[in-house]
Write a structure and sequence with these properties.
six-stranded antiparallel barrel, binds calcium ion, binds ligand C2E, single chain, 912 residues, 32 helices, 31 strands, alpha+beta
Length: 912
């Protein structure tokens, strides 16, 4: 049923369900449902004939549907109107009046004719149905027309004509015929043919009472005139109908388009009355507001948007000024998730130019704005870390350098590079690498704490811009803080990961007044920091340009040296502490550079690592050491350094095994020295590599212990045979108040428990050797016995009785700065004067303080506002050694600086 109605409305077959079933508002009253017709928006009521007289009610809609069901043809196509009993009633009344006026009723044929006319019109509904139900031929339908229209009208005319003879005044009879004709006009409406037939028929019936030539010719003339008029009328009606159909189709199409637009959620419509109260709003907009259309109906337009925005005032202005407005951005009122709307509207006037209200549409901008923000974020921010990206950092820098006032063009640029990040990425996978970068970004932001802007340039490269003028001490401090913070262990996928960071610094405008220049120079500074052994920071200076060139040259020379075999292996004896006998060597690379002379591996190993030459060099060292070792006594071992980059390659065990097989030596005579950086992740790959190397049968030594993030946990896990205590630990162990000794002692006892050897590296003085002995190191390697020697000399050494003789200075020159300075020491509320005897970054020795308990906290006052917190480490008579809770910064000129109360900018120098 509804389908037919839809077709009738000219809508798409699947759409009109709603249209047909939609209850229409009653005439003049409020809408039947909460949803006013969209046709009001389209102004359709002007064109819909059914709606011209008011709105359709449900019953008429159903009737409409019924009609549509019977035929797809429009109703005016049929000759007979659906009902004509009104006409029957009208005739009865006309006859009754005629009877009353004439006081007589004609009997016989006229009476029968009268009855027939009434009866046929009364049965008009039946004939109409018959015409519509059956698919009749036109001729049959014309027969029905004759039966249901022509015949009763002719009968009525005949009855009235005959009545004249029975005494009815002829004027009355003619008047009645005219009235009946008039009554037939609304009955037949646009059915021009039927109306014409009815009129001819009644006059013909009337005329038969005087069948003269004159009557017949008058009748024919009238019929002709009527036919002419009917034709003109018919054509006009047909033209109106076609125009109306066209309008209906346009309206239906528009309605359909608007409905699908509303349903698509892209926009919605609204309309207000002259007071600004909503008279129509799309259901989709009501849904956003969490209300029904009925609830919104009657509320003021300004109530559906938030009251705060300035845009809301703009809206209020337009509504009161009755002016059109476009795309005013407003927030939908009372929505939990913010919804942004763009509202467009224009005033509506009726044909008398009376203001009727506003009509317009709204679009939802929320998604658009969100995606715009997303695009901006992608364009300016790094998606992974959320930091500013390279583009934005570049813009920021350019902005500073182009500041209108010269004083505002100062800034510092810090370029950061993560050491060993690539290894984490390679061994733990990219998701772990990503997680690490995120944590790095967080730490970086926390460390900077707003003093600068940090961004990620890509990969493991980060950049910091600190605006303003700052002295180098402060910047050094900031750089070191960053390095310290980034070098703390990370937990990633439940694994401990340690990386380092190198920082390069350049200052604008001294180191460059354009972005390009500054970036090139800060890159050089970073390069210098990496070159200096990583984990440090370096400022840009002009010499770096030549350093960079030098480095490129060095790389070229190194390639040539490798190709022409200009490298040599030197061997430094390792002495067994208890017997003072040489038990082995450490192989150390040497390169006699054609122009620069002998170069330390510290200079060229990093170059080899960066240039991808380390594998080649490492393999050469392994083969050469094994070959040399094969010539030396069985009891002698040799250690070879293995770069972390070599360790990360799965072929390492095979390479080692090949070198051993080639020289034919016992694998247990070869020791591989690895640094803690191989543990920067606890990955399965590291464990597998250890196992594979152990299967080859070589010994493993943990080199430079104490320099990285030495975790004793590594020692338990990895199958080391030896720990090499770094020389920086040995150095200073003999000094008063140093904790190095205690640390060495605990390492040696742990190593003993784990059945590992210990080698103290870099022992130079007799004092150090003595201490190392006391602390229980099993081996010593240092200049006190031997410097690294050539293979030839090493051969000569092992040809003898292997005994080594300690030869060196008694004690190392103290690193401490000796001075005499008056300071104040605060202890448990008391303020005591003391003399500063010496000072280093980590602590100081004070004179004049009696019996300060070890472990107690003190505050040392170097000057009016230069205070440092410290802890008493030892105390003998009136002397005390204190350790600063925050290490001081040693400056290039030898003075010390301390961190002020708040920011590094408060760094103050202490007189030396
Ligand atoms: P390392 O493995 O810690 O080697 C010990 C370094 O300390 C050697 O420096 C050695 O000459 C030096 N040294 C030994 N005793 C003393 C002492 O009493 N006082 C002082 N001041 N220094 C002492 P070298 O030969 O310059 O080597 C530096 C570093 O280069 C080595 O440190 C090692 O990390 C690396 N290296 C050397 N040869 C190789 C190699 O074949 N492969 C790899 N991957 N790295 C190597
Ligand atoms: Ca070593
Ligand atoms: Ca070492």
């Amino acid at each position: 049923m509804t389908k037919g109605a839809g077709q009738l409305l000219g809508a798409a077959p699947d759409k009109p369900v709603e249209a047909a079933a939609q209850p229409r508002p009653a005439k003049g009253g409020p809408p039947a449902s909460g949803r006013p017709s969209k046709r009001t928006l389209l102004g359709r009521e002007r064109t819909d004939p059914d709606r011209r007289s008011g709105t359709r009610d449900m019953a008429s809609m159903i009737a409409l549907a019924d009609r549509a069901e019977s035929s797809a043809l429009p109703d005016h196509h049929f000759y007979l109107p659906r009902r004509s009993h009104g006409m029957a009633l009208f005739l009865l009344l006309a006859y009754a009046f005629a009877g009353g006026v004439a006081k007589a009723v004609p009997l016989g044929l006229p009476l029968a004719a009268g009855v027939i006319s009434v009866a046929l019109f009364a049965a008009g509904g039946f004939f109409a149905q018959l015409e519509r139900r059956t698919k009749m031929l036109k001729i049959l339908r014309q027969g029905l027309l004759a039966l249901a229209v022509v015949l009763p009208m002719a009968c009525a005319g005949y009855a009235l004509g005959s009545w004249v003879e029975a005494g009815l005044a002829w004027q009355w009879a003619v008047g009645t015929v005219v009235c009946i004709n008039a009554a037939s006009a609304p009955l037949f409406g646009v059915r021009i043919v039927s109306l014409f037939c009815a009129k001819i028929a009644i006059w013909t019936g009337f005329a038969v009472i005087d069948p003269s030539v004159l009557t017949v010719s008058a009748l024919l003339g009238a019929a002709l005139a009527l036919m002419l008029v009917a034709r003109i009328e018919w054509q006009a009606a047909e033209a109106r109908r076609i125009a109306s159909d066209a309008r209906d189709r346009v309206a239906a199409r528009a309605e359909d388009i608007l409905r699908s637009f509303e349903e698509s959620g892209q926009g919605w419509f609204w309309e207000t009355d002259r007071r600004g109260q909503i008279s129509y709003i799309s259901p989709s907009a009501a849904r956003v507001l969490g209300k029904t259309v009925a609830q919104l109906h009657g509320s003021h337009l300004s109530e559906i948007v938030d009251n705060t925005a300035a845009a809301e005032r703009t809206l209020a202005f337009h509504l009161s000024a009755r002016s059109a407005f476009q795309d005013i951005e407003l927030r939908a009122a009372g929505t939990a998730n913010e919804r942004l709307w763009a509202l467009t509207g224009r005033p509506v006037y009726d044909s008398y130019q009376n203001f009727c209200g506003f009509r317009g549409h709204g679009t939802d901008l929320t998604e658009k704005r969100r995606s715009e923000q997303q695009v901006t974020r992608l364009a300016h921010y790094d998606a992974l870390t959320g930091l500013v990206n390279r583009v934005q950092m570049g813009e920021l820098l350019a902005q500073i350098l182009a500041a209108p006032r010269e004083s505002e063009r100062n800034c510092a640029v810090l370029m950061l590079d993560l050491d060993r990040f690539k290894q984490v990425n390679d061994t733990l996978g990219h998701p772990a690498g990503d997680a690490l970068l995120k944590q790095v970004a967080q730490r970086l932001e926390r460390t900077l704490d707003g003093i600068g802007r940090c961004g990620r340039l890509g990969g493991d490269e980060f950049q910091v811009i600190v605006p303003g003028t700052h002295d180098r001490d402060k910047l050094s401090f900031v750089a070191q803080e960053i390095i310290n913070s980034l070098s703390q262990p990370y937990t990633i996928e439940e694994q401990n990961v340690v990386i380092g960071a190198s920082v390069g610094l350049a200052l604008a405008p001294v180191d460059g007044s354009t972005t390009d220049e500054l970036i090139r120079n800060v890159d050089l500074a970073l390069y210098a920091a990496k070159d200096a052994g990583r984990g440090v920071h370096r400022f840009y200076h002009k010499g770096l340009h030549s350093a960079a060139e030098e480095r490129a040259e060095l790389e070229k020379d190194l390639r040539e040296a490798i190709a022409s075999g200009d490298l040599e292996l030197y061997y430094q004896p390792v002495v067994y502490t208890a017997t003072e006998k040489i038990v082995g060597f450490e192989a150390l690379m040497r390169w006699e550079h054609p122009r620069r002379g002998w170069l330390s591996p510290e200079k060229f190993i990093a170059v080899a690592e960066d240039a991808g030459l380390i594998d080649q060099l490492g393999q050469w060292a392994l083969r050469t050491a094994c070959a040399d070792l094969a010539r030396w006594p069985e009891a002698i071992r040799c250690a070879v350094n293995v770069s972390p980059l070599q360790f990360s390659k799965t072929e390492l065990p095979t390479i080692v095994a090949n070198a051993l097989a080639h020289s034919g030596i016992d694998p247990a005579r070869l020791e591989l020295e690895l640094t803690e950086s191989v543990f920067l992740n606890d990955s399965a790959g590291t464990d597998a590599m250890f196992k594979a190397l152990k299967r080859v049968g070589v010994r493993l030594a943990l080199d430079d212990f104490g320099t990285g993030y030495s975790s004793l946990g590594y020692l338990k896990k990895a199958p080391f045979d030896k720990i090499k205590i770094d020389q920086s630990f040995v150095r200073g162990a003999t000094e008063d108040g140093s904790r190095n000794g205690a640390i060495i002692a605990s390492i040696t006892s742990l190593a003993e428990a784990l059945e590992m050897d210990t080698t103290a590296e870099g022992v130079e003085t007799h004092d150090e050797l003595e201490l190392i002995r006391i602390l229980g190191c099993s081996h010593v390697q240092g200049f006190i016995y031997h410097e690294p020697v050539s293979a030839e000399e090493a051969g000569a050494l092992v040809a003898g009785d292997l005994s080594a003789r300690a030869d060196g200075p008694q004690a190392a020159r103290s690193q401490r700065q000796v001075l005499l300075k008056r300071v104040f020491v605060g202890h448990e509320g008391a303020r005591m004067a003391a003399t500063l005897r010496n000072i280093s970054e980590g602590g100081a020795m004070l004179d004049g303080l009696w019996n300060l308990p070890a472990g107690s906290a003190v505050e040392i006052e170097f000057g009016p506002s230069a205070r440092v917190n410290a802890q008493v480490r030892w105390s003998v008579e009136d002397r005390a050694g204190v350790e600063f809770s925050e290490p001081l910064v040693r400056r290039e000129d030898g003075t010390f600086a301390i961190l002020g109360e708040t920011k590094p900018s408060l760094l103050r120098a202490l007189a030396s």
